[in-house]
Amino acid sequence: MAFESHEAYLEHVTPEVRPLLVSIQETVESLLPEARRCISYNMPAFRDKRVFFYFAAFKKHIGIYPPVTVDLTLIRELAPYRGEKGNLSFPLNQPLPIDLIGRVAVALHREYERT
């Protein structure tokens, strides 16, 4: 199924996960009001000049992409959530660290703004 909007994607996820994704969406929009919603790689994403933040629900986790590569302090803090390629995986059976995810969005926006 191809999604055309964040809303279409959210309708597709389970009711238990939907509020978590909405929380991520609202956090990014509050911290980066210039960012615009889009769908990229069939996932909800945000763009400014280019796409800089993706998020998606999976069976056991929420994924955040791409990896943070510049902010070394944040990278260390994200270690428990980082996969082998640096992408983030937040297990659904644990509280969602929404403030940390907000910091990731801001860091990725800064990284992608430079390139």
Structure description:
The protein is α+β, with helices and mostly antiparallel strands. It has one domain (6-114): Aspartate Aminotransferase, domain 1. It contains 4 helices and 5 strands. The protein has a 5-stranded antiparallel beta sheet with strand order 1-2-3-4-5. A hairpin with a 2-residue loop joins strand 1 (36-40) and strand 2.
Topology:
Layout: H1 6-12, H2 18-31, E1 36-40, E2 43-47, E3 51-57, E4 61-65, H3 72-77, E5 88-91, H4 98-114
Antiparallel strand pairs: 1-2, 2-3, 3-4, 4-5
Helix pairs in contact: 2-4
Backbone CA Rg: 13 Å
Strand order of the largest sheet: 1-2-3-4-5
The total of beta strands comes to 5
CATH topology name, in short, is Aspartate Aminotransferase, domain 1
* CATH level-two architecture: Alpha-Beta Complex
Q: Which H/E pattern describes the elements? A: HHEEEEHEH
What distance lies between the first and last C-alpha atoms, to the nearest angstrom? Answer: 32 Å
Q: Which structural category fits the helices and strands?
A: alpha+beta
Share in β-strands: 15-25%
What's the CATH C level? Answer: Alpha Beta
Average residue-wise pLDDT: 96
Query: Which consecutive residue ranges, at least 5 long each, have pLDDT under 50?
Result: none
In the residues, how many domains can be counted?
1
Shape: globular
Biggest beta sheet summary = 5 strands, antiparallel
Helix content percent band:
25-40%
Task: Supply the number of helical segments.
Answer: 4
